[in-house]
Amino acid sequence: MKTILVPVKMVLDANVRPRVRADETGVDLSGMRLSINPFCEIAVEEAVRLKEAGQAEEIVVVSIGPAKAQDTLRQALAMGADRALLIETADSPEPLAIAKLLRAVVEQEKPDLVILGKQAVDDDCNQTGQMLASLLDWPQATFASAISVEGDRLRVTREVDAGLQILSVPLPAIVTTDLRLNEPRHCALPNIMKARKKPLTVSNPADYGVDTARRLTVIAVRPPATRKAGIRVSTAAELVSDLRQTGVL
Amino acid sequence: MTVLLLADHDHHTLSEATARALTAAKQTGNDIHILVTGSGVSAIAEAAATLEGISTVLVADDPALAANLAEPLAATILSLAGQYDTIAAAATSVGKDVLPRVAARLDVMQISDVIRVITPDTFERPIYAGNAIETVKTADPVRVLTIRTSAFNPAPAGEGMAEIKTIAVPQNTWRTRFEEETVTKSDRPELASAKIVISGGRALGSADRFRDVLGPLAERLHAAIGASRAAVDAGYAPNDLQVGQTGKVVAPDLYIALGISGAIQHLAGMKDSKIIVAINKDADAPIFQVADYGLVGDLFEVVPELEKALG
Amino acid sequence: MPSYKAPVDEMMFLLRDVLDVRSVFADMPEQADTDEDTIQSVLEEAGRFCSDILYPLNMTGDVEGCRLENGAVITPKGFAAAYHAFSEAGWGGLSASPDYGGQGLPRTIQILVDEMLSASNLSFGLFPGLTRGAVETIEAHATDNLKTLYLPKMIAGTWTGAMALTESNAGSDLGLLKTTAKPRDDGSYTITGTKIFISSGDHDMAENVIHLVLARLPDAPAGTKGISLFLCPKFLVRGDGKPGVHNNISVGALEHKMGIHAQPTCVMNYDGSQGWLIGTPHRGLAAMFTMMNAERLFVGVQGLGVADASYQTAATYALERLQGRAPNSNTTSPIIAHPDVRRMLLSMRAFIEAGRALTLFTALEMDKEKFHPDPAMRHAAAGLVALLTPVIKAALTDFGFEATVQGQQVLGGHGYIREWGQEQYVRDARIAMIYEGTNGIQAQDLVLRKLTLDDGQPVAHLFGLIRKTLNTAEPVPELASIRHAVQNAFTHLETVTKRLTDGDLSSTEERNAAAVDYLRLFALTCFGWLWLKMTLATRDNSDQAIRKLATAQFFADRILPQTASLASQIGTGSAAIMALPAELF
């Protein structure tokens, strides 16, 4: 493979508890810690491992988001990506618009493989990779837990409801990552410093001629309903008797 | 308003997820067609025909569809798409894999993981691992939906039989090759649809103990077995047992968490269960905050006592 | 269960909003590229390393401890691998000179990473910390030959450093030390003697240990003016740069001690070991002291780091632990609802944030001292560093220890047992009040030497900065009561300082008797000043701003008044301390 493209998204840090804004317009992100989406981090790690194994020559990372998403790209560069593209936009485009922008990036960069996170942990859509595959008319292997290169094909183990499914897809292809694909590395300090000097180009959606207008109107974002407080029981017998009373046993 | 619903099945039985997704589909339109895809699926088609509220069963029977691969499956759905206002599927690994591929080709923004249909174009869906619920309204001419099945009751069996029609499957040289599938075999009910789920965490300590402690209790209660991510990562249970944000989302009548601390990702996968029981030796474990019944104790002692109390 | 997360947001707030490091670094040619994004990436990754790799080894390392087998130190399980990962990731070279493979980043960042290391695993953090001390000493004073031979390996972490100063009869008074150095024909020396309390003296984590040993030459005058500094490797370095034969350096014993059990504190025997002179003969102590400010800042931040780790566990616990009923509540409440628990947590937090601010302020002055092109700026910075070093070393470790006790208290019985890690923090924090010059010695240094240094210019400079902040805060109505409390504390400090420098308490005995209380008064006033600076730097209604304002108010209302009592107790003079004849003790 010559090039692997890895799209990455900056999201509210997975360790921060999201707080819904009182006016129900969304989740409050101001002043909150933002980080690389964990599934995207796994995607970068997998690409770097493929490169380290001599299976790819170059890794390009791309992010579509606010100027601050440069931090996320720098992290990917510190992990081992070679070059970064930021398509800067203040409104957070939906997966369909993201997929269209990524199609334009693919046409420009001509990667042999695109690895994406299976979903972003903010909107939880789980769509972008499949949509990109569709727009490009490329084969896809989603929810990957293992990847190996076999000639001009990829052998991908997928986590499916029934267990594990193994597919073979020819390149170019789209792969989306599941949690167990790998454990992302800790970046070395010299690599963090070198990442500052790696090329990062900034453009905007209009440069790619893509309309990022939203298709869905968000009417409200609310906290989930809370459960009523439970009770403590002290013995297994007490538990069984209580459960019998509810009729569930 | 005509709806196309993709049937979910394992080539032997129609999954309960389909009946649950149907309940959601019925709230989005009044004429519902169900698409059964696969190879040798006539029995599945007949089962689908008995579901209440289905007017037509479309059968796409072709060896290329046997493994639910996204390419032929999307092409099959797209060959029918023009006739429908809504295209829906249960948010199973197949539905999640294929529907975005359909949506993009239709230039439609899909709505994932619908948990409530407010009007046929307005839906509720969880975001941030269920820490927030978003209400969205779509302006697209066609609605593409995946349904979080734990949020809907299964549609009952109907009185009659829907009409069954075989459709032509688009032919192509599909590039993706199916190699193999490792299916976890179990006589127990399926995790996603079981009435009772017993889940184990890392406190079980080993794969053997996970099996030996949970197995007999699950047998006794006719329950499905689930696991926390920590238990799966530690190798105590296979990945398809994982309950949580990134695993299966379940909402059984009774959910028993054994030695699970209750990381937020796990809670996202089970907090809609009707009754939650937590057994953990750490009295401060977050799982107790969502539990209806909490028992602080060593699960290796409590579980045998529980079996005894059940008689 | 407890966990540690590096407070990168807090650190960035100080760097960006309070100290504006970007514009400070912009004036320094060697640091012009050190922008906030770079700093944040470095801190986040360092924090990840500490949380993921070092923190999980903290309790296991404490339980297992180091042991001596066949004369060699075995570190606890996981330490060698973690050290390998640490070095591999280049963390040892963060602030080291690029000439020898370091990244050349400023002290300001180094000290924040040191805080994370101390918080996540103090025993571990001492290995790279001591290596850095040795590296800085070698770089400042050794010959080019020694630098080329040793620095790249030490900066890469392949070899570690140890500082061999103390002997059984020479502790705070190093003038009494007896280890000897005899010249050899080849220009090197033969070192003979026994040293005690040698941190990282030996271990199994790296292929060589480089000892910097204080010893006397045959013609040395008595006392501190007759001590020279020598480099003694555990294994002599071969022509190809690899470790070769053993240099007759052996571990006599491992000290049995209260805390930092995973850190090998050794009795070291040098039995005719070969060593090389660093710097000029008889000027060894002066050479060692060039890195003393940095080392003391490092020890101060150990107190801070351990306190923050204890705080994080205590705060999490207080939010989750249901016990008792809050005032005006009918149901069992999380203990955070109880005023006394809040008092303890706020005391910890108020100290930790102000202590971190003081550390960073001083570290930034050290960077100015090193990198600023203007000699006048460098001189002024050096004065502030000299003045604040003993304050940071003593106050941060004193208050840090007190904070760990509060963090333990929040958990009640669960703080006393091992499970939650709180009792370990108490034991580990204790050493920082003792080593690198006891806190009593630090107070002496402040009162006897630093107050009058340079005709009192540094202290006048600092007081000027405090006055300036008080003036800036004057027109801000919502800060009025905080400002008032800081003004009061500052008035006490000014008054007592005047009495100590040229008033009724200026005799050596009076200054001695006042020293420890005075250092505390000095530190509390500095904390008050920095709380005012921090509240001035918050603008919006963010959680952070709410937290800063509330904590500042707590500090002003509930802690800063202690300055009045300190001033009053110092004011009574030495009489009550000196009255009892020694034989009646």
From TrEMBL, chain A:
It holds the Pfam family ETF. Keywords: Electron transport, Transport. Residues 24-212 form the Electron transfer flavoprotein alpha/beta-subunit N-terminal domain. It comes from the Bacteria. The keyword Nucleotidyltransferase does not apply. SMART domains: ETF. This is Electron transfer flavoprotein subunit beta. It comes from Acetobacter fallax.
TrEMBL record, chain B:
It holds the Pfam family ETF_alpha. The keyword Nucleotidyltransferase does not apply. Residues 3-182 form the Electron transfer flavoprotein alpha/beta-subunit N-terminal domain. The keyword Transport applies. Keywords: Electron transport, FAD, Flavoprotein, Transport. SMART domains: ETF. Belongs to the ETF alpha-subunit/FixB family. This is Electron transfer flavoprotein subunit alpha/FixB family protein. It comes from Acetobacter fallax.
TrEMBL record, chain C:
Its cofactor is FAD. Transmembrane segments: none annotated. Residues 162-271 form the Acyl-CoA oxidase/dehydrogenase middle domain. Residues 82-157 form the Acyl-CoA dehydrogenase/oxidase N-terminal domain. Pfam families: Acyl-CoA_dh_1, Acyl-CoA_dh_C, Acyl-CoA_dh_M, Acyl-CoA_dh_N. Residues 463-581 form the Acetyl-CoA dehydrogenase-like C-terminal domain. Keywords: FAD, Flavoprotein, Oxidoreductase. Residues 283-445 form the Acyl-CoA dehydrogenase/oxidase C-terminal domain. It comes from the Bacteria. Belongs to the acyl-CoA dehydrogenase family. This is Acyl-CoA dehydrogenase.
